[in-house]
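Notebook, bench 3.
Goal today: get a predicted structure for Acetyl-CoA C-acetyltransferase from Microbacterium mitrae so we can plan the truncation constructs. The sequence was checked against the plasmid map this morning, with no discrepancies at the termini. Length recorded as 383 residues. Pasting the sequence as submitted so the record is complete.
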Amino acid sequence: MAEAYIVDAVRSPVGKRGGSLSQIHPIDLGAHSLRALVDRVGIDPGAIDDVIVGTIDAIGGQSGNVGRSALLAAGFPEHVPGVTIDRQCGSSQQAVHFAAQAVMSGTQDLVIAGGLQNMSQVPILSAATVGEQFGFSMPYAESPAWNARYPGEEISQFRGAELIAQQWNITREEMEQYALTSHQRAAAAQEAGRFANEIAPLNGLDFDEGVRRDTTLERMSGLKPLTPGGRLTAAVASQISDASSAVLIASEQAVKDHGLTPRARIHHMSVRGDSPVLMLTAPIAATQHALAKTGLTVDDIDLFEVNEAFASVVLAWMAETGAPHGKVNVNGGGIALGHPIGATGTRILATMLNELERRQGRYALQTMCEGGGLANVTIIERL
């Protein structure tokens, strides 16, 4: 079977809401990582066959096929095409899958997969909010067929995370301890310079702004629940953020033709669905499917990245898969580093790739929960 190689991965810092990157136009935010990637690899952007960019809430500055606009703003030649895709939180991870599939099919040789999201300028659910101004409600509420299948169900990521905490009997204290560990790990990684190789500084920022070095369990315990009587608070949820990221995927022929040195290969990629009501449990089934498909076990994987949309998601995933916390999100995750939705998939891939190299491991697995009850899994092998 043809191979898909990861040549390099670059990202912007992750800015917090209203922070250092909040005033950068989404097009320019995306262009930054695209330009940084081709400059770092030293490849002619005119050789790129396609640019696939993940973004959700494609309105305002993120509308009109923002992926194409970003590559033009990055100075790529006009003949280079671009497309914008939306698989919710997994958008840029899915972009990697589409890029790898194109390369493995032999139809393309060099594809950039990436993502961008300026949540400060375009808040989450903005598309639905705009729709309400024209008399539309949330999509689930209006479909008779949907409501016939899931009668009376409130569809919300917050409700899903709360239901997961209840179903797996995860306490608020356990989630707060997990969140504290995420901040501690991220702070330690920053101090050790572990993110330096993946971050292309932007607007004077060269680090992820969301890490809270001074947070404590006592401070977390004083926060109000997100829902009345619930277990979740803002402290155990991912942060609203702004960022972009990009990965170069190449065929074996492109590696030879352009004198590239790949850092890893795509070993496996898949996507699975689960309950849209619980919404955030699909990483469990998706991971189990990926391991069964590849014949690998949890012990064979040197490193796991499971997006920290909420602490309950990762804690339930660890309980079901048996993956040890010592190999999961070792440099922190979305609770500390932020979750710039469209950009998170390739941000995680960049972090995972660098950590896999630092540990001299062989395999790393990435997964993340996505709206609609979905989850992608990508397994990479270090070269």
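The CA atoms of residues 86 and 377 lie 16 Å apart. The beta strands are 5-11, 15-16, 50-54, 82-85, 110-118, 241-250, 264-273, 303-306, 363-370, 374-382.
Flagging this for group meeting.
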